[in-house]
Design brief:
This protein is α+β, with helices and mostly antiparallel strands. Helices cover 25% and strands 42% of the residues. A 5-stranded antiparallel beta sheet has the order 1-2-3-4-5. The longest helix is centred in the C-terminal third of the chain and has 16 residues. The radius of gyration is 16 Å and the shape is elongated.
């Protein structure tokens, strides 16, 4: 993972979500030293519908940061997917600290040794 746009970044985010968030009705939780807040907006019409999931991931101080991850999904009137997009944007803190924590989590999940204090 090199940037917040890499497919591996989103795989990591959804893996972390899967580890910590089995009840999709929850909107706030903590996992691996960060706080998560989920918000969803949906609309269903006769010809199309959409859902936007927003995740705000926040690491408390020291070296705190926050990251917004958004997934947007559209479908037609017969519930067939017609468009899906996702993006992420750091909102506060140092970008390098955010990436350091994410890379440490990526190493942990893949079974590699964690050599950084970012995961603490």
């Amino acid at each position: 993972m090199r940037t917040f746009a890499d497919p591996s970044f989103f795989r990591l985010i959804y893996t972390l979500l899967g580890e910590a968030h089995s009840d999709m009705r929850r909107t706030k939780w903590s996992h691996r030293g960060v706080n998560w807040v989920r918000q969803r907006h949906t609309f269903n019409g006769s010809n199309s519908g959409f859902a936007i999931d927003q995740y705000l991931i926040t690491k408390p101080n020291p070296n705190g940061w926050s990251l917004l991850v958004v997934k947007e999904m559209w479908w037609d009137g017969e519930d067939k997917p017609i468009r899906s997009t996702q993006w992420a944007k750091p909102l506060s803190g140092k970008r390098a600290k955010t990436l350091e924590w994410l890379r440490a989590e990526e190493r942990r999940i893949s079974g590699q040794p964690i050599t950084s204090k970012a995961a603490e």
